[in-house]
């Protein structure tokens, strides 16, 4: 295990507990207002497809933001994790996004028992992604669960030439001075917490 990988592993253990302790029900509502009034206004982005996630295990809650964006004309989508192929054709799993109106309630369990739209629903390309995380820093470096699903997904989205805005969705307690990262980690464009929005360096 490299030095960066070991540092990430240690930090993940600490951040799981911190995230659960910091979680408050009102955080998502406050962050939703900040997203609309600060990030979307600055980015001058028109309603399109917004992808987020169904919150679990103390994750910062993006559902209030999705409800607000739905009222503004956005289409909502949720991630579906496609596991690695058993025959080795796909060495790493990846994330695709499929439409899922919030009015339909909690999606059924997908890979790893994470709520996800059924695979029969065609995937879509989001214009805005609210990205889950364990920790992040002001430079847009993100610590995830370690599987690299979102890093690969964001890298692929950015390669097709169409704009996509990656917003780290966090609680203020998850922002650190520095997060260990390497070249495989896809940086974020913005960070939004219940207190503020931070534009990350290009």
UniProtKB/TrEMBL annotation:
Q: Which UniProt keywords apply?
A: ATP-binding, Ligase, Magnesium, Metal-binding, Nucleotide-binding
Q: Which cofactor does it need?
A: Mg(2+)
Q: Which reaction does it catalyse?
A: (6S)-5-formyl-5,6,7,8-tetrahydrofolate + ATP = (6R)-5,10-methenyltetrahydrofolate + ADP + phosphate
Q: Does the keyword DNA-binding apply?
A: no
**The enzyme's E.C. designation:** 6.3.3.2
Query: From the UniProt record, which GO molecular function terms apply?
Result: 5-formyltetrahydrofolate cyclo-ligase activity
**What domain of life is recorded for the organism?**
Bacteria
Query: Which top class of enzyme applies to this chain?
Result: ligase
- Name the Pfam families on file: 5-FTHF_cyc-lig
Family named by the database record: Belongs to the 5-formyltetrahydrofolate cyclo-ligase family.
Q: What is this protein's name?
A: 5-formyltetrahydrofolate cyclo-ligase
| Organism encoding this protein | Marinibaculum pumilum
């Amino acid at each position: 295990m490299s030095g960066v990988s070991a540092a990430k592993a240690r930090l993940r253990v600490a951040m799981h507990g911190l995230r659960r302790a910091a979680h408050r029900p009102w955080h998502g509502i406050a962050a939703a207002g900040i997203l609309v009034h600060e990030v979307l206004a600055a980015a001058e982005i028109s309603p399109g497809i917004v992808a987020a996630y169904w919150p679990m295990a103390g994750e910062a809650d993006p559902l209030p933001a999705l409800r607000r964006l739905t009222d503004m004309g956005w289409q909502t989508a949720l991630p579906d994790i496609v596991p690695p192929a058993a025959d080795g054709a796909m060495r790493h799993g990846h994330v695709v996004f499929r439409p899922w109106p919030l009015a339909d309630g909690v999606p059924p369990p997908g890979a790893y028992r994470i709520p996800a739209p059924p695979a029969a629903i065609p995937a879509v390309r989001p214009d805005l992604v609210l990205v889950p995380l364990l920790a992040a820093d002001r430079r847009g470096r993100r610590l995830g669960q370690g599987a690299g699903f979102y890093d690969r997904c964001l890298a692929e989205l950015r390669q097709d030439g169409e704009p996509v805005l990656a917003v780290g969705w966090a609680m203020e307690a998850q922002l650190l001075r520095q997060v260990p990262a390497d070249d495989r980690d896809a940086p974020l464009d913005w960070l939004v917490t219940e207190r503020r929005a931070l534009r990350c360096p290009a």
